[in-house]
Amino acid sequence: MSPLHAIAGQPVDSVLAIARQVGWEAADIALQFYDAQAEAAPKLWQEGDDPVTAADLAIHRHVLERLQTAFTDQPFGYLSEESDRTALTLPLPQDWVWIIDPLDGTRDFIDRTGEFAVQIALTYQQRPVLAVVAIPAQQTLYWAVQGQGCYRETKDGTQTKLTVSDRQDNLILVASRTHRGDRFQQLLDRLSLQQQIYVGSVGVKIVAIAEQCADVYLSLSGKSAPKDWDMAAPELLLLEAGGRFSHADGSALRYNTGDISQWGCLIASNGPTHDRLCQEAADLLASLD
């Protein structure tokens, strides 16, 4: 992808520095709640089929406050999983929109697997151009900017550029432990992906591909579908690490379209076999249907 030269008239590096700092702060908040949860059960609410904890809400408030304070006079829109969407007119009218998942993998946070993440993406005209994914339990933060690559950052400031594997055989699928309906399970069973590992958050799954621990991730909507905030930041990380992320028909994901759900079959991969996987998945889904 072509390098990003400016963000709403501001230097890319200055916007990135703020996003990374906010990501680290949000990770610290998540860990505070995570440590407290070891002593007492988390305070829970229910939003549809999904649990919401006090950590989700505290991180949401902190990230929004920090970004809105830092960019008071900038033409940014803000969409968070915990936003009051009854107060929003979707799609947001701004070209530049921050898409935030305060706690991706809330169920894993509750179950104490450590496989949860804070995800912050900046999109421009429906495509991600800057991304931060913090994994609090690992004390790591991943970031990417369009045209600049994907990096792992540790607490001491050490940064390592990441590149996906070049495997074309014996690909490793990273999948959810839950959220697998019958149709999706049939798809997984019939795909030529024999090696499978199971983790929580979408961000943690995509990081596994960027770290060469896995090669493929699939999502298939059923009665519900993943949302913009599940995919926006992880997608850019993968693309900048040299991978690919698309619908099964090869089309790109779009964000802030008015429908926050990402319907259909989504495929993320290390790249070399992406077109074959897309065709295989599309053919299998046609036969299942």
Automatic annotation (TrEMBL):
Keywords: Magnesium, Metal-binding. Its cofactor is Mg(2+). GO terms for molecular function: 3'(2'),5'-bisphosphate nucleotidase activity; inositol monophosphate phosphatase activity; metal ion binding. Signal peptide: none annotated. Mg(2+) binds at E81, D101, L103, D104, D230. SUPFAM superfamilies: Carbohydrate phosphatase. InterPro entries: CysQ/Inositol_MonoPase, Inositol_monophosphatase-like, Inositol_monophosphatase_CS. It catalyses: a myo-inositol phosphate + H2O = myo-inositol + phosphate. It is an enzyme of class 3 (hydrolase). GO terms for biological process: 3'-phosphoadenosine 5'-phosphosulfate metabolic process; phosphatidylinositol phosphate biosynthetic process; sulfate assimilation. PROSITE patterns: IMP_2 (PS00630). Its EC number is 3.1.3.25. This is inositol-phosphate phosphatase.
